[in-house]
Amino acid sequence: MAAFSSVPPAQGAPLPERASEYLALSFGDAARTAAAAWLGQGTPAARRRHITAAEADAGALAALASHLAGAAVGLRVLLAGTQSQVYRAAAAAKEAGLIEEELSLAVIEEAVIGDSAKHVYCPHCGTTTPSREPIGATPLCGGCRRRLEIYPHFSRRTASYLGFMADAEKPLPPSSSPESASPEPEAVR
Ligand SMILES: [Zn+2]
User: Which portions of the sequence form the region Disordered (predicted)?
Assistant: First the structure.
């Protein structure tokens, strides 16, 4: 798996050298502080910009894309926010042509942000449902109302966790008797 360069959100994360311009995009207050610290370092030769947004929504991602469209070679970008915000923005940035070497990520712990939700993707109806529950929990799908289990698989492309139908048949261990595979009505006497 290709890795983004990740920087700790604390102050002191190094600015990449030899950039023509620095751009930070931050989501929420904690991320804004981290991004401002990142931008505040080093020599003031290169231009610095900071886009702040509350959420990694369509408006924020469009602002990022339009900035990248007009950017010169040598731009270095920092994305700061929760994991899902940062990966959503990273996906948008790569779609706009940014390569991983130009991108730094500062993932702020959700506990620090406080109000951030996971996004659980439903493979049955395609709805993405926000949930504050932990991995392994079973929130209801906002689309089809099936109960989904939050599976520990995070998609960077869609910035969401994969949900499984929680009350569907569970994968059977190999030693299971074959009759559970083809269920027959069972007589209760
Ligand atoms: Zn669904």
Answer: 168-189
